[in-house]
Specification:
The chain has about 240 residues and is an alpha/beta fold. It is about 45% helix and about 25% strand.
């Protein structure tokens, strides 16, 4: 993929799940791993109740996604990388166009303007990277998992978790590694986990924010954009 000129490395950093992708890559990945028989059907029982309670608005989305993470972590060990990648490709093929219009168009516009496009996701790097490549990102960071180099099977162990859970640390490392600048930078996120990198950029955008991010946006005077049905509109901070 062609990189921006070293003389023009403006930075735009995006979250993916709920910001570009109209769902969670991890949720779709787990569902497809079950459908493909890579994970057992019983894996769905780990998060089914949380999903139904979120659907009925009896509990929040956070409890649902945490239950999906537990199901993923519990069943990843022993899975061969080849089978995992096969499912990743299938998920990206099916869902690559299920994106928000606002952020899709913003990504395309910033790319034309010469920005270095960076995505930081809490979904597995395997699927976040594949999805990000389809979208035209130059660099994607995601959660890393240990692979046994002899068997090519996952051990179930997460790698560099403390770093990956702090998106400002990831962004600072990317800036140093890629020779980027925060001057004129743009950042887009949808939850409070994106606040650390939104504080660093010059033009933070809170897109379809949850309550915690909405409150942070109001405190900091950040731009708030909502896409609902066929409407895109700004909410005064």
């Amino acid at each position: 993929m062609k990189q921006p000129s070293a003389k023009n490395k403006k930075l735009a950093v995006f979250d993916i799940d709920g910001t570009i992708f109209r769902s969670s890559l991890l949720i779709e990945l787990v569902e497809e791993l079950i459908h493909a028989g890579v994970f057992p059907k019983s894996a769905r029982a780990v998060y089914d109740r949380a999903y139904r309670r979120w659907l009925d608005r009896k509990d929040g989305y956070d409890k649902y996604i945490l239950a999906v993470i537990r199901a993923f972590d519990r069943h990843l060990r022993g899975i061969h990388e080849r089978d995992f990648l096969r499912v990743v490709r299938q998920v990206v093929r099916i869902h690559r166009h299920r994106v928000y219009r606002y952020t899709r168009d913003l990504v395309h516009m910033l790319r034309r303007q010469g920005y270095f496009l960076l995505a930081i996701s809490h979904s597995p790097k395997y699927i976040a990277g594949s999805f990000g490549k389809q979208m035209g990102f130059h660099k994607v960071y995601g959660m890393l998992f240990e692979l046994d180099e002899r068997t090519k099977q996952f051990t179930g162990k997460r790698l560099h978790t403390e770093v990956m859970l702090n998106k400002s640390v990831v962004l600072k490392r990317a800036i140093e590694k890629e020779g980027l600048t925060l001057r004129g930078s743009v950042g887009v996120g949808d939850t409070e986990s994106d606040v650390p990198f939104l504080k660093l950029v010059e033009r933070p955008i809170c897109f379809n924010p949850n309550r915690a991010l909405y409150r942070a946006a109001r405190r900091n005077g950040w731009k708030i954009v909502v896409e609902r049905k066929d409407m895109i509109y700004e909410i005064p901070a």
